[in-house]
Structure formats: C-alpha cells, structure tokens
Amino acid sequence: MANKAQTTSTLYKQTLLAGLWRENPVFRLLLGMCPTLAVTAAVKPALTMGLSVIFVLLCSNIVVSLMRNLLKAHLRILMFTLTIATFVTIADLFLKAFVPRMSEMLGPYVPLIIVNCIIICRAEACASKNNLLVSTIDALGMGVGFTLTLCVLAGVREVLSTGAIWEIKVLPAWFVPWAAMSMPAGAFITLGLLLGLVNVISKKRT
Amino acid sequence: MFKIKHFIEQSWLLIVASFCFGLLIATANTAWSPRIEQNKITKINNLMGGLLPKAEKFELAAELQIESAKGKKIKSNVYKALAEGRCLGWAFNCEGPGFADKIELIVSVDKDFGNFAGYAVLASNETPGFGDKIKLPYYRQQFAGAPAGKLELAKTGDAGKIDSEIVAISGATVSSEAVIKIINNSAAQVKKQMREKGLISNGK
Predict the structure, then answer these.
(1) Interface contact flag, A98 B35, Cβ < 8 Å
(2) Residue of B nearest to A104 (CA)
(3) In the prediction, which pLDDT does B190 show?
(4) Do the Cβ atoms of A106 and A39 come closer than 8 Å?
(5) What pTM does this model have?
(6) Residues of B in contact with A67 (CB under 8 A)
(7) pLDDT digits (tens, 9 = 90+) for B12-65
(8) Cβ–Cβ below 8 Å for A82 and B18
(9) Which residue, A69, A102, A203, B163, is most buried by CB atoms nearer than 10 A?
C-alpha cells in the first residue's frame, strides 16, 4: 500500500517536472514556436502570454479530462478545439479589459493560442487518457515550463535590444542596443542558440 | 428516424458543450465589455489630450464614413476639443495600410480645419527601430502647424520648417509615406463632410 502511494506521488512529481525540462514544450518538443518567436521581444508581453497559456491549458485539460469517457473518438479533435477556443476567447476578453496595453502588444497572438500545438497536444496526449489530478498537474508543469522558456528567451532579447529588463535599465549607458534582437531575426538567432545550449547540457547529463 | 437517433447519439456532447461554452463566453463578454469600451475611450482621450493639450474635454461631434485609398469603408469619429465652452479644434481617427500592417491614427486640426495640430498613432505594427519611428516626436512635430491641405513627402530637407513638405524618416520611407497618404486621404474627406454638416464654415 505504502509502495503504491509512493509510486503515485513519484508519478505526480515526474509529470510536473516533465514540462520544466525533460519534455519542455519549447526546447524539447519544439511546440508553440509561433508565439515563442513572436512575443519574446520583451519580458512583459512574454510573461503575459505565458500566463494566458497556463490559464487556457489548465482549463482545457480539466474540461477534457472530465469528459474523456464521453468523447467519441472521431469527434474528439473538434471537442478539444471547441474547449480551447472558449477559454482563449475568455482570456482575450480579460486581457482587453484589465491589461489593455499588453493586449495591444500581443495583438493577434492571444487569439492564436487556439491553434497553439502545446494545448491540443496535452489534451490529446494527457488529458483525454488520464484522471483529473494528473491532467491538472501536467497542465501546470507544461504551462510553467512554457512560460519560463518564453521569459528566458525574452530576457536575452530585451537586454540586448534595449539594455533593459522588465523595462528597467540594467546595462551601462555605453552599451549600444542591438535593434536586430527585437526583430524576427533576433528571435530565430536567440532560439537557435538556446536550443543548442540545451542540447549541450542534456548531452553532458546523460 | 434511425438517422436522427444516430446523429444525436454521436453529437449530443458537442451540442451540449457548444451551448455551455457559448453561455460562458456571453457571460464574460457582458461582464467585461463596458470596461473594454471604456479602455478604448480613455486611450483615444489621452492621445487627443496630447495633441491638443489646452483642451479640457472632448465631445463626439459626428460619426462619419470615409473611404480608404482602396475604396474600403472606414468609420471615422470626429471629436470636438473644448476649453471653457469654446471650440479649440477637432480630432478624428483614420486608418490605412502601413509597411507591415494597418496603421491607425488620430489626427487633430485647428478649429477652422486650416492647419493640422498633429497626429498620434492609435495602432501600428511597423518595424521596430525603423518604421515605428512614426510614433516619435521628431517626425510628428513636422505635422503640428502644417497647412491642412495636401501634404508631400521629401527625402531630404529641413525638418524644422513647418510647411506642407514633410521630411521622411531615413530608413523608413514606406512608413513615412503611409502616414502622409492616410492623412491626405482622410483629411480631405473629413473636411468635406464636416462642411456639409455645418461643423466648420465653408471657407468662403
């Protein structure tokens, strides 16, 4: 009995940690590349995006997990999309009402969460097969993993393109900002370098 | 009969879920839409306040419909800037294509629609470091006081001189030109319609 409880808690822990490193949606699964590249010019919009994704992922995983036994196999993707679209619309309205500046900066990328692969991937791979608790933990792990990755990427780009982080100057005045880092090219270069770094680190560990 | 039964068996969850989710979105929309509207109004008021700093308040004077250069219908709201009951000037919104995406502007003019008082960018998605300089004072200043007729873009010249010739932002000619095109196109139409409505004198 004790053994079983231990196995379950290990499973929960593993599920939670998977999203942070081993199955990190951006660095390991290469999912959700569109928002990863598009909204990481600065930390503030990246964090807003990350939090919106956590909210949508959490809600959609909970709902999908609850109705997993009622799903008809051939209609499941339709149900997932419907669920996701609902929560994305709510998140979009919320941002427009309470943080209009961020909503403007993120522009179409908030509604585009609907087609973000991470969310539909978790609905299909985890929530439609697991109970409520596992699905919730999985959503939290993946969501936080995604958010942290976005913030790291945005941190690097914001420092190099403006000399500031969270709009607070951190680099000395003589630093010449690299405007290119806030443009799409900067996003690809930073992502590429970070992916390489993650690969080097994970190779060393194994 | 069998077909209907089969249809309901297969899709009842979808139908129920659509209904529930629709209700959820409707609730969120009802609860937050006044706030969203208010945010938009606050933003426009702040921008107009920056263009006509002496104004105490802005009143919606007319809701016009203008046509973009490509013939698309655009709604343009004209606001009257008031201070101590007197009209100080007018501000209206307009839009048009930019380099990357649509550019939305607020343009303000003096009370006779004789000179521009300036413009502010309501929404744009121009290239950071280049096209997005249309938001910066050094380009915008050239419009403050410029005659409210047809503006022209010059590649070089004295940006400090206020006239109908606007000196382009170096490295962002397309964005600079887009702003001028939007203003030229909309100002002429708004002026005409405001005259027709008797908001401004017909200049005779």
Answers:
(1) yes
(2) B123
(3) 93
(4) yes
(5) 0.83
(6) 13, 17
(7) 999 999 999 999 999 999 999 999 999 988 998 899 999 999 888 888 898 999
(8) yes
(9) A102
Angle at which helix A132-162 crosses helix A2-18, to 10 degrees, equals 30
Torsion angle, CA of B152/B153/B157/B158, rounded to 10 degrees? 70
* B43 reaches A (C-beta below 8 A): yes
DSSP string, B14-29: HHHHHHHHHHHHHHHH
Cβ <8 Å between A93 and B32: yes
Phi, psi for B81 (deg, rounded to 5): -90, 125
- Please determine, for residue B188, whether its predicted confidence score (pLDDT) is greater than 60: yes
- ipTM beyond cut 0.85: yes
Task: Extract the tokens encoding A16.
Answer: 């939670």
CA–CA dist B102, B69 (Å, integer): 13
Considering only CA atoms, which of A168, A115, A122 is closest in space to residue A144? A122
User: pLDDT over 90 for what percent of chain A?
Assistant: 64
Residue A188 has pLDDT above 90, yes or no: yes
Six-digit token string for B187: 């100002």
